[in-house]
Design brief:
By secondary structure, the chain is of the alpha/beta class. The protein is built from 13 helices and 13 strands. Strand 7 (about 175) and strand 8 form a beta hairpin.
Length: about 375
């Protein structure tokens, strides 16, 4: 007769604090639940497709409270916003949880009523954009009308309540054509709507929105945060061809040019939270995950100074609590997966990597 393996006794793996502003070191390693409205309105565009599938399978959206997010949120609470924006740069190996760290911080900023300037994955522009046109504003630059249109809609969705509350106005006249212009004192939302309804000007409207945010963050008394997943794409290669055998230089993409202006130290009441990611580059340029390698000389010098935030693999406590959570959600269903030996095997197979653990558990 074969004796059954002893089961691991699950401990508490959830925190009852669902507001990220309340998270402390005591909550580290515990899962908190994100309301579905926050997922739909704030986080959805920046989440990995597999995590979106997980939300459906688990019937809830949960994120583990980990040290990198706690560190950034603590700094955001204590920063001096009369100075230029502090830059926080998240880095780590693939699957370690960089995107989920950004999601945690983004949720915090949304709850605290920051203006969100969120760029979910700029590498998509560099590598997969096919719809383009010559800039109507700056000769030599290239607009991505549909990408700019999508971003304006995303910005409107994330900041709808705050835009209604602040009632921001344009600070100057903006001329689109001889017959189309926007006078000083017009609602900033008119710029957003113009870019959405007139795709020809969508990239320029993105630039105007970002310019007005930088100018008005301090004068109107609101905080603004730019959150970018894979910011190294701002200085990376492109696969966008203007003519055969010649690729577009990333600096000539209007969207990239406009967002990089947010990195300049000429505004206050803001912060920059970004990640560098190997997947934002083509396969030949994914040898290392360090900021200096991924940003390159040009990008590193532009982004510096910054606060480096390393996202490590799971600790022993974190990985055991994650397995407890997967058992609770029936992601691990086999009898063996719930034993001490099965748990050890999962930890070995995943090498303590959060994404690899999720994949390894799929067949258990």
């Amino acid at each position: 007769m074969v004796e059954s393996q002893p089961k691991h006794t699950a401990g508490n793996f959830r925190t009852d604090k669902d507001n990220p502003a309340d998270h402390t070191e005591k909550d580290k390693g515990l899962f908190y639940t994100i309301p579905h409205k926050i997922v739909d309105d704030i986080l959805k565009e920046g989440l990995h497709s597999m995590y979106k599938q997980q939300i459906k399978a688990f019937t809830e959206a949960c994120v583990m409270v980990r040290e990198p997010a706690l560190e950034i949120m603590s700094c955001l609470k204590k920063a001096n916003y009369s100075l230029p924006p502090v830059k926080y740069l998240i880095y780590g190996e693939n699957g370690s949880g960089k995107t989920m760290t950004l999601a945690h911080v983004l949720h915090y900023c949304a709850v605290e009523k920051w203006m969100l300037v969120h760029v979910p994955w700029p590498a998509f522009w560099n590598l997969f954009t096919t719809e383009m046109s010559a800039s109507v504003w700056k000769p030599g630059r290239v607009d991505f009308p549909l990408a700019a249109d999508s971003w304006l809609k995303h910005f409107r969705q994330q900041n709808r309540a705050l835009l209604e509350q602040l009632q921001l106005k344009t600070s100057q006249k903006y001329v689109w054509t001889k017959r189309e212009s926007l006078q000083p004192g017009e609602p900033l939302t008119e710029v957003i709507e113009h870019g959405i309804s007139r795709n020809k000007f969508s990239s320029d409207c993105v630039g105007v929105v970002l310019k007005e945010i930088r100018q008005q963050a301090a004068t109107k008394g609101f905080k603004a945060v730019m959150v970018v997943d894979g910011i190294n794409a701002f200085w990376g290669p492109t696969r966008v061809r203007l003519i055969p055998k010649k690729y577009l230089h990333v600096g000539n993409i209007s969207l990239v040019h406009n967002f990089k202006k947010m990195l300049q130290p000429d505004w206050t009441n803001g912060a920059i939270v970004a990640s560098v990611d190997q997947m934002a580059h083509p396969p030949a340029q994914r040898k290392n995950y360090t900021p200096k390698y991924l940003l390159g000389k040009w990008g590193f010098e532009t982004f510096d100074p910054f606060v480096p935030v390393f996202v490590d693999k799971y600790s022993k406590k974190e990985i055991n609590r994650c397995i407890d959570y997967y058992i609770d959600r029936k992601w691990i269903q086999t009898e063996n997966g719930q034993t001490l030996e099965g748990r050890k095997e999962l930890i070995f197979l995943s090498n303590m990597n959060p994404f690899q653990l999720y994949q390894a558990c799929a067949s258990w």
